[in-house]
Amino acid sequence: HQPQRGSIYSPNSSTLFITHSYINTSQRKPLFSFAFCEAKSAMAKLVSFFLLALIAISMVATTALAADAQYHLDRSMYGPGSLKPTQCLPQCTRRCSKTQYHKPCMFFCQKCCKTCLCVPPGFYGNKGVCPCYNNWKTKEGGPKCP
């Protein structure tokens, strides 16, 4: 059975062919093969884009965490004797900026800074970076330096 011009011809149920009036009727082309290939290509591009975006976000997050870790662990910047006495006020202002007991924090921080010449990084904790600051205790045995 020979297909007519412009008709849809299906030699078996799994593939559809279409014949065009401007193409020789003996040449048959699959109807849906190009659309399927284009859909696969678009999906591959979309998946590639999302993977690249995920890698970029991971790199930015890793860089930010590494910078934060360096801030907390750099002993040369926060260790004993790393400050001059004139740098104590701005460092104590930073250290005590988030406490509700600002005046006592500033008083003891400046006292500890003038003795130890260091103020730990951050707003709380991290006293291990500055041993003098960490080991100075009150008469009762509590921490003297905030």
From TrEMBL:
<keyword id="KW-0812">Transmembrane</keyword>
<dbReference type="Pfam" id="PF02704">
    <property type="entry name" value="GASA"/>
</dbReference>
<protein>
    <submittedName>
        <fullName>Uncharacterized protein</fullName>
    </submittedName>
</protein>
<keyword id="KW-1133">Transmembrane helix</keyword>
<comment type="similarity">
    <text>Belongs to the GASA family.</text>
</comment>
<feature type="transmembrane region" description="Helical">
    <location>
        <begin position="46"/>
        <end position="67"/>
    </location>
</feature>
<dbReference type="InterPro" id="IPR003854">
    <property type="entry name" value="GASA"/>
</dbReference>
<keyword id="KW-0472">Membrane</keyword>
